[in-house]
């Protein structure tokens, strides 16, 4: 039975990955990118919000350098035309982005007015970061939401960038979609238990062998 219990535990955990992944963002919200302006810089530039409202992913295939600006207008990250990805260690936003609610202590070196100190973190032309402009920073339900069951716009936001040295902006909208949008847990549990039960009975039948009278024998655990 201990062996069965171990198998059941592993299977149940494997059967509910969707529910677990939802904890990385807030399923009550959808943060979506609506435009990149001017349109002339958008060719080859992909920006999206991942996992409801969790983080922003930017892919640079423009053939130009792209710079993401921090909350004080300082350079936060640079995604070069050759795919090199760098972060500015002097940017306060670099440290504030480590926590969903910016509940961190920034080091003394963090200074929006200081010259950038670039650190290479990748070479695939993709930068992902937790941008506080793209999600709700308060606790509880936003004041804009009068009826929690109805879809409501919380706010529009802008993430300033530079493309090829020219200013541009990524615009988006944060929307409250309501508690009903959360993935239900019960159906996953029921499905998991049904599959586990089927596997358990299959193992029982395989472990049992016919006795000389043609009847099932004892289990061999």
How would you describe this structure in keywords?
alpha+beta, 7-stranded antiparallel β-sheet, 3-stranded antiparallel β-sheet, 4 helices, globular, disordered C terminus
Describe the structure.
This protein has about 220 residues and is α+β, with helices and mostly antiparallel strands. The chain has one domain (about 15-180). It is about 20% helix and about 30% strand. The protein has four helices and ten strands; from the N terminus they run ααββββββαββββα. The protein has helices at about 1-15, 15-20, 90-95, 185-205; strands at about 30-35, 45-50, 55-60, 65-70, 75-80, 85-90, 120, 125-130, 150-165, 165-175. Strands 1-10-9-4-5-6-7 form a seven-stranded antiparallel sheet. Strand 9 and strand 10 form a beta hairpin. Helix 1 (about 1-15) runs antiparallel to helix 4 (about 185-205). It starts with a helix and ends in a 14-residue tail after the last helix.
Strands side by side in the biggest sheet: 1-10-9-4-5-6-7
What order do the SSEs take from the amino end to the carboxyl end, as H and E? HHEEEEEEHEEEEH
Instruction: Sketch the major β-sheet.
Output: 7 strands, antiparallel
Class by alpha and beta content: alpha+beta
Q: Assign an overall shape.
A: globular
Note the gap between the termini: 8 Å
Could you estimate the helical fraction of the residues in percent? 10-25%
Query: How many structural domains can be distinguished in the coordinates?
Result: 1
Overall average residue pLDDT = 84
User: Approximately what portion of the residues adopt beta-strand conformation?
Assistant: 25-35%
Q: How many individual helices?
A: 4
Poorly predicted residue ranges: 7-23, 217-221
Strand tally, please?
Answer: 10
Backbone CA Rg:
25 Å
